[in-house]
Every structure is written in C-alpha cells, then in structure tokens.
Task: structure prediction
Amino acid sequence: MAEDFHKPTQFSGSKFESFTGGEDPAQISRVAHETAEAILSRVRNDPDPAIVERLVAYTDEHGIDAVAELWSRATPRSLPGALWRIYLIRLLIRQDPTGTAYLYQRGAEVAVTIDPVVAGAPTPTGPDEIIALANEILRGVFTGDFAVALDRAAAFCRVIAMGCTSVADDSDAAAPARSSELTTRALRFSTVAQEFTSSARLWRLGSLE
Result:
C-alpha cells in the first residue's frame, strides 16, 4: 500500500456500505481479491510481530480510505469483503469506545446465547477492554485461525445488536427517534454478523475467495 493516503476519516454507524463507484467493476473486484489474498498469505506465512501490529494499527495512522478503496465494494461473503468489515468494525469501536462498550455490556447482560463468551471481551467491559477486543480480533486474522477470528467478529456484532435492541426498548417511549436509530443499528450489526458467519464457513470449506 502507498504511504500517502488521507488521514483518518470519521464514520458514523450508518456508513457500513457508503463507498460506491468505480470505472470498471471487474477490475475493482480483481484488485480487491488479489490484494486481500496477497496480504493475508504473506503475513500468515511469516507472521512477523512488527508487521502484524502495523497492519492492525494501519487505519489509526492512515485512515480507512485506503482500505475502503481496495475492499469496500467486494461482496460481503468474500475474503476482501470480510477483511473490509473487520477493519470497519474496529474503526467504529475506536471512534466511540465508551458508547460501544456500553452497548456491548448491555448486550452481554441480556444475551441468552454463548456469543459473549465467543467474542471474548472481559467482564465488565469498558472502553479499554472493547478497544483491546477489536485489536485482538483483527490480530487473529493474521496470526490465528482465520475462521475463529470471523466467528469472534460475528459474535461481537450479535452482542452489540442485542445491546442496541435492549437500549432501544428502554428509549422507545421517552426518545422514539433514538430508539429507531438504535433499532436500525441493531439490524446492521445483525446483518454483518451473518456475513462474518458465512465467510467463516466458506473459509473452513476452502471456498472463501
């Protein structure tokens, strides 16, 4: 990747799929898949800790634009699509660690599934813990079982979705606009969770490209 990308860009929770355009969809798709495969294969074959940490923190210094340009238009159930979503989830966490930790903690409290255990955040979950979780999941993409990293990302998204729904229920009468926004956010996180789960299954079958 070049070194002269834009500085960090702020994303709201509504911008999961905001990047559009491109002159040649076939070329865009080919570049997305080739770069995702090249980066992942190179690092996983020789997981130098310094390189891994640079990749984990890449968007902190350079912003999300470069990653978005490469991978944001890839289909969700693909290698570049999965990588894009993990980087984007990490960015959203870092932009509002306090709010994200609150939603995660609420979701973990109301969850009736093992998702909080799979995601792996400490309890109680504060801003520092939620940032550490985001870094750990992304680090696992390059150094651990890729499918497990995707499963953890999916579980995180489901916990956040449960937290959003729970807070939305509390806010429904007093703040209906806030409740509606949280319900929409819960749907987005649930959708991304499904995409991560599908990508993990494809990876285990050797079919995630």
Observations:
- The chain has one domain: 25-204.
- The mean pLDDT is 89.
